Amino acid sequence: MHIRGGNLLARAFHEKGVKQVFTLSGGFCNPALEGFMECQIPVINSPHEQVAGHLADGFTRITREPAVCLVGPEGFANAIPAMMEAWGERSPVIFVTGSSTLKRKGAGGFKEIDDVAIAAPLTKHSIEVTHGERIPEFVDRAYKIATSGYPGPVHLSVPVDIMFSSFDASVQRDERPFNHAKRAAPKAWPNPDDLAAVLSCIAQARKPILIGGHGVWWSGAEQKLEAVGKLLRIPVFNVPYHQKLLGEQSEAYMGLADIHQYHPSEYALQQSDVAIVIGARLDNQMNFGNPPFFPHTTTLICVNGSHEELDLNRSADEVLLSDPGAFLDALLELHSSGDWSLNPGWFDDNKQRRGAWVGKMVADIPDEKALGGAIHPLQLALDVQDAMTDDDWLVIDGGNTHFWSEIAVNIAGWRGRRLGNILHPGTFSMLGVGVSFAIAAKLNNRSSNIVLISGDGAFLSGGLSVEAAFQEKLPIVVVIDNNGGLDCISQQQERLFASETHFATDFRDIPFHTMFEGLGGHGELVTKREDLIAAVQRAIASGKTACVNVKTKGHISPIVLATTSKRDKASIE
To answer: What is the H or E stretch that residue 14 is in?
Structure first.
């Protein structure tokens, strides 16, 4: 039996257990789409290739299983931003792109670009399929690379002549590996001597802190992280912009390890004697491991399941190659060993400081009169959560909208608000991912309400993806923080420009709510805070993809305020 290369590709992904494909259907992709249809793998067609990539990224982050983004050669160029966003979060999306014919490679073939070279810096693995009979091998290798060690996106380029040509359906069945099914990714186990040295250091600590990165999420160890925090009474922080690990209402969770968005983290960092960073890299967000973020007096320990990622933590005082879950198991054993000297008041001290911070942040929110009748973005984010229930998912997208919403989820969590989960932009803070992530969340949690808080600029960047919500009958609620422009950039300009004004950052008054109504959804305009919670609840109850268009007044966020000063420094370093 002979089948097209695209069908062979689909069968290879089916054997790996791939559950979802996202695409913008194109001629180059048709053989693969036929294969996915025959294998009964669901395919969602999106209005743009970048949207397809963000949908695949969101789906992969939620399920921790690779999804496929399938696009044509010109679509590859459109998908690059999504590839970058997945790379920043180490999300193991498998990008498959059609390409010019292998036969005419280098001769100016139809839609020919060097996609393999372009994708290489943004993926763990970028390669071109060189023969149709090796398609199962290429898929097997890409899947294993994507999910092993520190996970990350991969890219397969499939020439159109291979995609359309016919091959024996049983190719490579007589070659190893004979079993093409998905296997659990191998995990790094700590060297006993290295582990003992690190545990000895931690056991003597009086004021340790834990900082969890997205490596904890990809290893599935977030519950162990919470257990360590609770049992050993160690304050737990989260690296900014990465996958949420603990609910903000968790007793062990304090907030982001970000001295601007969560001020008490500065105290914890400065007073700590041991800082344990698990599953994260010492990049710009961690001041590259240097003082004053991590003081000279603090012993900095980095634990990571990938030696490549651990190599980027060269500034740490101690490093340990270990799967985060295995390391957290070892920490849990410290409690029963009796070799533990933690200052019992350290944990409670951090909790009290969190509570005091919450009280001050809420007390400092200007009322509507002070803002000319508009709503403060922090108040917006708090009220939206008051309209939600415990199983609901919150998605965040934007610049200052993102920053204020991060603060709001910490405040609401302190007050006891539980959420199903939270999704937000990653390392690159890319605008326009919110609608795609909300759709991906709904696709995986159909009985839960999915609420997106999006800046108006972020929605304009990626809002076209909302058509997929209508097409696939996946209702989401989009709350737009409508301040009439790119507020985060405006605030930087006003502190940088000699004129103390902003330029080229304003939008017209856009009726986002009527846009949703025109598409067949629900829309409401909110201009008074007293109407906001009820409007969000009505949008949820409508059962439709809905928009609550909220008139707000831009207000400089703590992170922009702290990282800008007039004429001297107006960029985030």
So the answer is: helix 5-15
What integer pLDDT is reported at residue 291 of this predicted model?
92
Give the chain's domains with CATH numbers: 2-168 (3.40.50.970), 192-356 (3.40.50.1220), 366-570 (3.40.50.970)
467's enclosing H/E stretch is helix 466-471
pLDDT tens across 76-127, in order? 999 999 999 999 999 999 999 998 888 878 778 777 889 999 999 999 999 9
DSSP state of 209: E
Residue 270 host element (H or E): helix 264-271
> Is the distance from CB of 221 to CB of 228 less than 8 angstroms?
no
CA distance 36 to 8: 10
* Cα angle 504, 510, 513; round to 5: 150
Count Cβ atoms below 10 Å from residue 518 Cβ, excluding itself. Answer: 10
Instruction: Please tell me the number of Cα atoms within 13 Å of 173 on its side-chain side.
Output: 8
- pLDDT at 85 (0 to 100): 95
DSSP string, 455-476: EHHHHHHHGGGHHHHHHTT---
515 is written with which tokens? Answer: 């846009």
> 530: which 2 tokens?
């007293």
**What is the model's pLDDT at position 565?**
62
Q: What is the DSSP letter of 531?
A: G
Nearest to 158 by CA among 2, 3, 9, 27: 9
Question: What does the alpha-carbon distance between residue 262 and residue 217 come to, in Å, rounded to a whole number?
Answer: 21
Are 375 and 550 in contact by the 8 Å Cβ rule? The answer is: yes
- In the 8-state DSSP scheme, what is residue 375? B
Q: Which amino acid is at 32?
A: A
Determine how β-strand 68-71 pairs with β-strand 253-256. unpaired
Spatial separation of the C-alpha atoms in residues 20 and 517, rounded to whole Å: 29
Q: How many residues can be counted in the chain?
A: 573
Cα 243–247–252 angle (5° rounding)? 110
